Amino acid sequence: MPPSQDMTTALDPGLLDALQHQVAVFARRAEQTRLGGTGQLRNSMDRAAYLLLNRLDQEGPMGVKALAAGMGIDSSTVTRQVAPLVDTGLVKRTSHPEDGRAVVLQLSQRGLARLEEVRASRRRLMAEVTEGWTPDEREAFCTLLTRFNTALSARQSAHAGHLPAEPGATGGSESAPAS
Fold first, then answer.
1. Measured between alpha carbons, how far is 56 from 70 in angstroms, rounded to an integer?
2. I want to staple 133 with a disulfide (CB 3.0 to 4.6 A). Which of 25, 73, 109, 137 is the partner?
3. What confidence category does residue 156 fall into, taking pLDDT thresholds of 50, 70 and 90?
C-alpha cells in the first residue's frame, strides 16, 4: 500500500528531500564508476552482468524464468542480458538434468573466475571508500542499505501490475553477496 499523504507530511520534508537527493547522487556515482573497484578498468562489470553472475553463483544453475523471477525482472530482459554473457563464455547453456528439453543457465569456470576478480576489486573499493569508518558504521550502513533495497523491492513487487518496468531495471532481490 502506498504511503498516505498524511504519513508523508508527518515526516520531515527537508530530511526526505535530502534522502532522495543522496540516493540520486549515489545512483549516479554508482553508474559512473559501475562500482568497478580499484585497479585496472577491466575489473569493472556492468550492474546487470554482476547481478546475474552473482545469482547463478549463489543459487546454482537455473532456467531463464526462475532467474527472472528471482531478480524481479522480465524473462525477455534476462534473455537479452544473458546473451552477451553466453557469447563471452561467462555463462553456459546446458540441458536440464531432469528434463533434457529444457535449458538451464550455469556459471562457467571462466564466469566464476571473472566474478571473483570483480568481487575482490569491489571489496578493495569498499574498504577504500569506508577507510575512516568503524566496523560498526560499516555494518550499520550495510544493514540500512539492505533494508532500503528490500523496501524498494517489496514496493516494486506490490506495484508490479500497476507500473511499467524501467528499461534495464534489475528489480527484486539483489541481496548482498556473502564475500
1. 10
2. 137
3. confident
